[in-house]
Amino acid sequence: MHEDFNSLETGKPFTHCCTCDCLLSDASIHVINKSYVAHECIFELAMCMECREDMNSKLSEESRVAMFDFMHDRTDMKKRELELGSDAEPAAYLKSCITCGIDSTTLTNYSTGAMFSHQELQKGPFPILMCSTCEEQLAETISDETRNTWDKFIGEHFPGPPSEIKLPSGNKPLLL
Question: Is the pTM of this model over 0.85?
Answer without folding.
Answer: yes
